[in-house]
C-alpha cells in the first residue's frame, strides 16, 4: 500500500507578523497579518508576501512571532488581523 500526501494540504505553524509599508504619501504605515509558514526561519518571508497582497504600497519589512497555538495550519494561509494596541 502506497500513501500519498498529494491530496492533503501541507501543514505549517501559524505566525503573527507586523509589517511596515510605504503609503501613497511616502509615509510609513503598519499592517498586521497572520500567516502559516513551515518554520520560524521562513515566517518573515511568508508574512512579507502576505502583507504585500494587502498593502497599497511596497512592504519594507516584517517582524513575526508565533501565534496562539491552534495546531497545524495549511501552508500559505494568509489574512489581515486587527492591529495590536
Report on the structure:
- The structure is a single chain.
- The chain is α+β, with helices and mostly antiparallel strands and 85 residues long.
- Helix content is 18%, strand content 41%.
- It has one helix at 40-54, and strands at 11-22, 28-37, 59-66, 73-74, 78-80.
- The longest helix is centred in the middle third of the chain and has 15 residues, at 40-54.
- The termini are far apart.
- The relative contact order is 0.32.
Task: Please summarize what this structure is.
The protein is an alpha+beta fold. The chain is 18% helix and 41% strand.
Give the N-terminus to C-terminus distance in angstroms.
52 Å
Strand content: 35-45%
Order of helices and strands: EEHEEE
Largest sheet: 5 strands, antiparallel
Number of strands: 5
Q: Count of helices?
A: 1
Uncertain spans: none
| DSSP helix fraction | 10-25%
